[in-house]
Write a structure and sequence with these properties.
InterPro entries: 6-blade_b-propeller_TolB-like (IPR011042), Strictosidine_synth_cons-reg (IPR018119). With about 375 residues, this protein is mostly beta strands. Helix content is about 10%, strand content about 40%. It has a four-stranded antiparallel β-sheet, with no helix packed on it. Strand 8 and strand 9 form a beta hairpin. Helix 1 packs across helix 4. The two termini are about 25 Å apart.
Length: about 375
C-alpha cells in the first residue's frame, strides 16, 4: 500500500507554501520528522530503460482500488476494494478481460494483501483465504465467506495498517506498515515505525519479528528458504530478514536506492522477483526529506493536504534477481497503467493490482 498518487496532484511548491502558512499558526504538529538525504536515484538506463510494455495490458476486472490479487484452485481471481469487501471473479480468469465479480467477504477494514493459507500462489480446494486489512489486522476467510480475526496487534500495539502477508512453516508473516492513522505521515516523518509480525497458526501467538522498518509493505520468501524479503517503501529499499538457519533473527539490506517507492514484492516463476512501484521518485520530494523543519510545519496542515501529494501517473514493475540487482523493468510512461501496487504471476501472465485505480490489469509474459 502506498499513497502518493492521486488524481488531483498537489505540486511540491504548494506544499512549501502550505508549510510557510502553517509556520505562523499555533497548532501543534502531528509530525516529528527526521532529516534524511536520499542518494541520487539510479539513471533510467540499461535494465531501467523505459519501454511501453505495460501499455497494452488488458483489464481483468473492475474494483475500487484493488491492491493485491490471489487465485483459487478454480482459477478465480480475488482482490480487495476500498469498501472493505474482498471480491472474486465469478469464473476463472483464464485469459479473459472484463470479468464479472461478486462479493466474497467483508473483512472489517480495507483488504490489502491476500494469500491462501496453504501458502501456495493458487490455493488448494478448501484452503482459507488470509487477508491483511487496514484497521482489522490479519483475517481468515473460510471458503464459504465466514470471517475470523486472527490477530489485530502485538506487544500492546494495535496493527493499524496490516499490509501484506506470507505463510512460512506454519507462521503467517504480516507487515505492519506504520503507527500513524494517516499513512502518508510515515513517509514524511521517517521515524521507521513499521514492523514485521509473525502469527503462529497452531498456537495463535503473535510475535514481533522485526522493528524499525521504513513503511513495511510487501513481504515474500527470500532466495534461500531461510529468509524473507520486506519492502521499505519510504526508504526506497528491500530488507532481508532471516527466520531460520544460522542467521535467524538477523537482517540486512537486500536491494537499495530503488528508482521509486516499492510496494509489494512477488516471486517470479523462473527466479528472482517482481517489485511493484506505484510511483517513481520525485526530486523535489527527495529534497524535502532533508528539511525536517519544513516537514514539521506540514504536520500542522489538515490531513487532506498530505493526502493530495502526488507524483505523475507512471506504470512501473521492476525485475530483481536473487542478489537484489535490478535486471529488467516494465513501464507505461504515459500512465495508462499507473500506481501498480502488486505484480502477481499466474499461468504465464502478470496480474497488476493498484490501490489508486479501478482495475486489475494483466500483462502477458
Amino acid at each position: 500500500m502506498f499513497g502518493f498518487i492521486r488524481r488531483h496532484p498537489l505540486a511540491t511548491g504548494g506544499l512549501l507554501l502550505g508549510a510557510a502558512v502553517a509556520a505562523g499558526t499555533l497548532a501543534d504538529s502531528r509530525l516529528d520528522p527526521v532529516e534524511w538525504h536520499p542518494p541520487d536515484p539510479p539513471p533510467m538506463t540499461g535494465a531501467l530503460e523505459p519501454d511501453h510494455a505495460l501499455a497494452d495490458a488488458g483489464r481483468v476486472l473492475t474494483a475500487d482500488g484493488p491492491e493485491d490479487t490471489a487465485f483459487d484452485a478454480e482459477g478465480r481471481c480475488y482482490t480487495g476494494a476500498d469498501d472493505g469487501v474482498v471480491y472474486r471473479t465469478t469464473e476463472p480468469v483464464d485469459g479473459r478481460t472484463d470479468c464479472p465479480v461478486e462479493p466474497f467477504a467483508r473483512v472489517g477494514g480495507r483488504p490489502l494483501g491476500l494469500v491462501f493459507e496453504d501458502g501456495i500462489d493458487q490455493g488448494e480446494p478448501g484452503s482459507p483465504l488470509l487477508v491483511a486489512a487496514e484497521d482489522a489486522g490479519l483475517v481468515r476467510v473460510s471458503p464459504t465467506g465466514e470471517v475470523e480475526t486472527l490477530t489485530d496487534g502485538a506487544a500492546g500495539q494495535h496493527t493499524e495498517f496490516a499490509d501484506d502477508l506470507y505463510v512460512h512453516d506454519g507462521v503467517v508473516y504480516v507487515t505492519d506498515a506504520t503507527v500513524h492513522d494517516l499513512f502518508q505521515d510515515e513517509l514524511f516523518e521517517l521515524q521507521d515505525t513499521g514492523r514485521l509480525l509473525g502469527y503462529d497458526l497452531e498456537t495463535g501467538e503473535t510475535t514481533v519479528e522485526l522493528t524499525g522498518l521504513g513503511f513495511a509493505n510487501g513481504v515474500a520468501p527470500g532466495p534461500d528458504g531461510e529468509s524473507l524479503l520486506v519492502t521499505e517503501t519510504s526508504r526506497y529499499r528491500i530488507r532481508r530478514y532471516y527466520v531460520s538457519g544460522d542467521r535467524a533473527g538477523e537482517d540486512e539490506v537486500f536491494a537499495d536506492n530503488l528508482p521509486g517507492y516499492p510496494d509489494n514484492v512477488d516471486v517470479a516463476s523462473d527466479g528472482g522477483y517482481w517489485v511493484a512501484v506505484p510511483s517513481i521518485r520525485d526530486e523535489s520530494l527527495d529534497d524535502l526529506q532533508g528539511r525536517p523543519w519544513v516537514k514539521r510545519q506540514l504536520g500542522k496542515l489538515p490531513e487532506s493536504v498530505l493526502q493530495q501529494v502526488s507524483g505523475d501517473p507512471y506504470g512501473l514493475v521492476l525485475r530483481v534477481d536473487e542478489s537484489g540487482d535490478i535486471v529488467g523493468s516494465l513501464h507505461d510512461p504515459a500512465g495508462g497503467v499507473f500506481g501498480v501496487t502488486s505484480a502477481t504471476e499466474h499461468e504465464g501472465a502478470l496480474y497488476l493490482g493498484s490501490l489508486f485505480n479501478d482495475y486489475v490489469y494483466r500483462h502477458e509474459l
